[in-house]
Amino acid sequence: QIFNQHNAEAPNLEQAFHRMAQMEPNLDHDVSWFLLPSYWAKMVVALISFLCFANSYDGDFVFDDSEAIINNKDLRAETPLGDLWYHDFWGSKLSSNTSHKSYRPLTVLTFRINYFFAGGFYPVGFHVINIILHCTISVLMIDVFSILLGGLQFSNKGRRLNLAPKSSLLAALLFAVHPVHTECVAGIVGRADLLCALFFLLSFLGYCKAFRENKEGHTFSVFWVLVSVVLGAIAMLCKEQGITILGLNAVFDALVISKINLLELIRKLLYKDKALESAGLLRKGLLFRITLLMCGGASILYIRWRIMGTGPPAFTEVDNPASFADSLFVRAINYNYYYSLNAWLLLCPWWLCFDWSMGCIPLIKSVSDWRIIALAALWFCLIGLICQALCSEDSHKRRILTLGLGFLIIPFLPASNLFFRVGFVVAERVIYLPSIGYCILFTYGFSLLSKQAKKKKILAVAVLGILLINVMRCALRSSQWRSEEQLFRSALSVCPLNAKVHYNVGKNLADKGNQSAAIKYYREAVRLNPKYVHAMNNLGNILKERNELHEAEELLSLAVQIQPDFAAAWMNLGIVQNSLRRFEEAEQSYWTAIKHRKKYPDCYYNLGRLYADLNRHIDALNAWRNATVLKPEHSLAWNNMIILLDNTGNLAQAEAVGREALELIPNDHSLMFSLANVLGKSQKYKESEALFLKAIKANPNAASYHGNLAVLYHRWGNLDLAKKHYEVSLKLDPMAPGTKENYNLLRRKLEQLQKKGG
């Protein structure tokens, strides 16, 4: 056997590399596939991966993009760059109890660079970068698969040889066109997975470079081992899965570089055989390299833990219901069912969904559930593969199967719920890296079938058909990710029991003004999940606007009963109670909202409106002032302060507030209008006229703007201009209050002047 020959002779590593091509079977010999020069193979993979996702380039910001990008203050120039290192992926402080502890500062930095060069939130630039990243990763996969499938060998000149060009091309194509990658490529927040994968692969290739023959004749380069550790750290700063590359590098070293037979090693350890040297465990440099990888990984994890804080991330039962099950049996059986679903998405990526939580996958609570079959099938296949990887007499087969299983399982471990609770049930994005292992196993299986098949061309055509179907599926799925409406509606057929899907469809309809349809989906979300407080809050809001106040109050009261710290629901409940003229209860609700969310400008604004209704003018002004302190661009609060001061005769104070507001929000036409009214009453006609005209230029179809300017001209004595703007106002709004009366007064005055003139 190859293994025994290496153990007996113990040749140095360089000689082993040069001799491997002759000593091991060539996988390409059995693969019926295209043979292309390296450059053309990479061009083909790049082109096909581009075609799969090209139609997502002009998509919108969808789903999580809103929170991670649009609402993330870390992207804006006013946020110091240093804050990125202390905030999570969503822009919250890592020390916050509500933080999900997703620490990805380098990914956020790329978003910030995108935002800077685009000059704002324009999604095209964000999408283009994601597509380029996936194409780059797919091209790198040719080099990675050539090593994993063909072995690591170098020429006499130190150039790495590709001994499996056909197999590596097939595996790279399988990876490039896999539909499960659509979420990572077409969804902008998927950049975390793409960047992580990029540096993950670079770390692996860097580790392989450590074994290239150098002039000094050293068996390996410590420098390149350390480079791979640094690249692994960078991968982890893009997404947490990146750290797993250090474990995979160690597995690769043991299997490919040191050629350890795992089964023989286990036997020797069990029987306490002292001759571990012959098993390859103490082969020159292996323990030293693994020690470097372990020390590097431990240091990275320690620093990450210190920055994150000692508290675990906070998730709710709806995010991951199995992890909250009291029974260990229920937790274990459901975790394994989730693994089988992930495996099925790799095998048959037809039913894809942006979110698999909230009842999409009901819990398995007994062994009589037919879904147990999926677990049995998964473990039957895994155990069979593991047995072959450990016990096969063919060292080439052992190596490929072990590496395939390693790349399939190890990158998935952070998402497995084994070490800590995760905030999802199934997530397509987390199998971007594990799909590398799937592609290895698929390609190896294809080579075995090709070896046995009499009509190899038919088999090759079948694989081409799979690739073509995947390309079309990628294009279709990418088009669904272009807008929230298409994305959310596509999930209704996949996860009809998912309350979040119905909630998101309803929210999208409500944002477009279709309240009647939105109500239907919000009600279904609440039916599917009677504790879905966000659906109750949004439904209550719509019912409030439709003046269905009693049902709105019931829903909002239930929401705050289920989640007592839900500040938005408390505020909305206060608005409903205010409309029902239950002022004391409304005031209490507003203050409860502020108690749970200290910086809540909208709540202070609504509290001010309540105080204004109660003629508590000082309290109203203080509430609105708090709103503008917390949110200086809060136009409604500024406007209400100006109007209240104007109505109470405090013209000088109203003018001062108006000028202060316009300094902060210089292009707000409603503030111009309010201040112009104050200046007109103060007989500062020229300045008032200028502000009215500026407001009309910004919003020419506002009847009140023309009407009040006409009143100004009327007072000022510019009767012709007054007549003109009264007529424009009445044309825009024939029912404008007071305008018709003022216009009739002006006409009578003009008639009297004409008679006197006559």
UniProtKB/TrEMBL annotation:
GO terms for molecular function: dolichyl-phosphate-mannose-protein mannosyltransferase activity. Its main location: endoplasmic reticulum. Coiled coil: none annotated. Keywords: Endoplasmic reticulum, Membrane, Repeat, TPR repeat, Transferase, Transmembrane, Transmembrane helix. Gene3D superfamilies: Tetratricopeptide repeat domain (1.25.40.10). GO terms for biological process: endoplasmic reticulum unfolded protein response. It holds the Pfam family TMTC_DUF1736. Signal peptide: none annotated. Residues 311-383 form the DUF1736 domain. TPR repeats lie at residues 499-532, 533-566, 601-634, 703-736. Pathway: Protein modification; protein glycosylation. InterPro entries: O-mannosyl-transferase_TMTC (IPR052346), TMTC_DUF1736 (IPR013618), TPR-like_helical_dom_sf (IPR011990), TPR_rpt (IPR019734). The chain crosses the membrane at residues 33-54, 131-151, 188-208, 220-237, 243-266, 286-305, 372-391, 403-424, 430-449, 458-476. Its EC number is 2.4.1.109. GO terms for cellular component: endoplasmic reticulum; membrane. It comes from the Eukaryota. It is found in: Endoplasmic reticulum; Membrane. It is an enzyme of class 2 (transferase). Belongs to the TMTC family. This is dolichyl-phosphate-mannose--protein mannosyltransferase. It comes from Pycnonotus jocosus. The gene is Tmtc4.
